């Protein structure tokens, strides 16, 4: 039986985190009632003229620099012509001939080791609207709110050979973009979408096979399943003596299969020509240097610094830096309480537990780092014990509660009144003669039970160390 190799390239569409659209002042905010975030410019009314949003260019440059691309100093926009309901003006402003970034790449790591994935280009363009198919009324509605939202399209080289490599590439790309602040990359909101170009060939063959494209995939799990499903389909076509047709296909994740949509268009089908309403973009040395100077510390550098500067385990640093939100919380809280390992522990254990329970992403965390730092300081100063601290942290996590105010309001502070503690310990000793006998008989572990019973009697609001000392004294 023949052995086949999968060849994959991606076109990743990223909505940029500008406040206004690429060629007009309409908001880019997600949601809103249909057709309320648009104007004559982004709906393509006759006689309107676009004005380029400078921030879009700067975000595109930042993404290019962070992915090792060269920046095209003189670039321009082109019109990509096609008639489709989601683009009312019947063309999309994009970049074909002179994209702003070219010839870059990023390094990924999989179970097979490290590998460089080339980036052919990054270009700027405007997003299209959104079609809503109403099965009940058997019609299609269109929402133009998304029209004109700025995009960069990151086009990889066909360097990936498996779903594992694709997901590693997307995860690395997503983190770079989030750390740069150029996009929130919320796949559930369409801020990051991927088109999968996939072909197969016999292992060792020099030529690529015929590729198909699956468009607008917005879930890592669906992307992995689509790659595996389309690879299997193409192999079956070839094994049955057929030919793979170059076409655009739609992946149905519920049915675990893909369906043909239309034949795959080439550049000539879109009749590209230079956009006459926008001047060419000239990028000076000073402007480029300014963007380079703004580049933040990215994930790989941050991870190395955490293990060295904060002396936290590499495993902790890997988990924390895998989310920009967690990394920001870690650094801010550690700067306040000066206990980085404690901050790391609270993020790695209690924060991760609550995120899993509530099926949340780290980016959805709303508590302030200051409140986590205060909680850690309260434990360190013996104002509350760790058992109570877990309860308080849930209030911090859920409501961004001020831990000091919450402890005071709920009466959760540690009881340091020795006479009250002594009375409680005496009562526990009297109520548990067997454990007392076991302890006096040499079973040191029996004291742990007595400590637990005393803590229970004190509703968790006592210092276990003080209870332990009193028990040993009285016994």
From TrEMBL:
InterPro entries: Asn/Gln-tRNA_amidoTrfase_suB/E, Asn/Gln-tRNA_Trfase_suB/E_cat, Asn/Gln_amidotransferase, Asn/Gln_tRNA_amidoTrase-B-like, GatB, GatB_C_1, GatB_Yqey_C_2, Gln-tRNA_amidoTrfase_suB_CS
Signal peptide feature range: none
Alphabetized UniProt keyword annotations: ATP-binding, Ligase, Nucleotide-binding, Protein biosynthesis, Transferase
Gene Ontology BP term (one): glutaminyl-tRNAGln biosynthesis via transamidation
Similarity annotation: Belongs to the GatB/GatE family. GatB subfamily.
Assembly notes: Heterotrimer of A, B and C subunits.
NCBIfam families: gatB, PRK05477.1-2, PRK05477.1-4
Function: Allows the formation of correctly charged Asn-tRNA(Asn) or Gln-tRNA(Gln) through the transamidation of misacylated Asp-tRNA(Asn) or Glu-tRNA(Gln) in organisms which lack either or both of asparaginyl-tRNA or glutaminyl-tRNA synthetases. The reaction takes place in the presence of glutamine and ATP through an activated phospho-Asp-tRNA(Asn) or phospho-Glu-tRNA(Gln).
Protein name as catalogued: Aspartyl/glutamyl-tRNA(Asn/Gln) amidotransferase subunit B
